[in-house]
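Researcher: I'd like a candidate sequence for this fold, 240 residues long. If you have to choose between options at a position, lean toward the conservative one.
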């Protein structure tokens, strides 16, 4: 998780610590349609000006969204200004430290099961392919970040930033790169072989698509970090 994203999520969650603001958010959330500030104020029993302040703060923090509509249905001259209405925002907030990505694991597994059902392929093979594809997507993000014709150093920096955003917490290591965090920690504790294999496939897919890094993904389980390590190959070490 990037520092900016962490700060944004923490700010959003902290916004709900204020009792009036939390009450307004819950009121808006529970309505079937967007509500006006007057309706929200009456719904939680606070003055209109106080409701306006907190509702707009919830909008600033991404927890509510604003739309404008004429409640009377009238149009044209004399119809009046559209009312400012509030509805629950689409943004999802979750802060786990260290970062976990259980939703991603669920998405990869769901795709693998669906593919296996449609093709007759073993689920484990379908999951390996889905994980490799995810690694390829991460490599694509890193390559876009690194720009055209990046040096090995620039590409490696972009790959590390992408993996850090994914929750792996990369660390320099004498042999290459260590991944200090497993985004699927609880799952790995219960289903070690399955999740470690998935992590390995993600890293292999990333390295295959990124190219030019001189790194190989290997299983190297140890306490306190991901079971996969990225080690230097004979081609690594140069700036290329």
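Model: Candidate sequence:
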């Amino acid at each position: 998780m990037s520092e900016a994203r962490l700060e944004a999520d923490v700010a959003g969650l902290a916004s709900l610590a204020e009792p009036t603001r939390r009450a307004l958010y819950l009121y808006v959330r529970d309505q079937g349609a967007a509500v006006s500030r007057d309706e929200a104020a009456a719904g939680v029993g606070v003055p209109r000006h106080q409701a306006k302040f907190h509702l707009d703060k919830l909008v600033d923090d991404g927890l509510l969204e604003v739309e404008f509509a004429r409640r009377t249905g009238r149009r044209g001259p004399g119809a009046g200004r559209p009312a400012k209405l509030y509805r629950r925002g689409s943004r999802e907030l979750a802060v786990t430290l260290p970062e976990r990505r259980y939703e991603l694991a669920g998405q990869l597994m769901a795709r693998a099961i669906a593919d296996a059902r449609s093709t007759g392929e073993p689920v484990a093979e379908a999951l390996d392919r889905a994980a490799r594809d995810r690694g390829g997507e991460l490599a694509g993000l890193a390559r876009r970040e690194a720009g055209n014709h990046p040096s090995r150093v620039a590409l490696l920096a972009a790959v590390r930033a992408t993996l850090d955003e994914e929750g792996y917490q990369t660390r320099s290591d004498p042999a290459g790169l260590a991944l200090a965090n497993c985004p699927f920690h609880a799952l790995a504790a219960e289903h070690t072989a399955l999740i470690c294999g998935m992590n390995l496939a993600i890293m292999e897919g990333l390295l295959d698509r990124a190219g030019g890094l001189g790194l190989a993904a290997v299983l190297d389980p140890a306490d306190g970090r991901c079971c996969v390590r990225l080690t230097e190959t004979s081609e690594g070490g140069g700036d290329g």
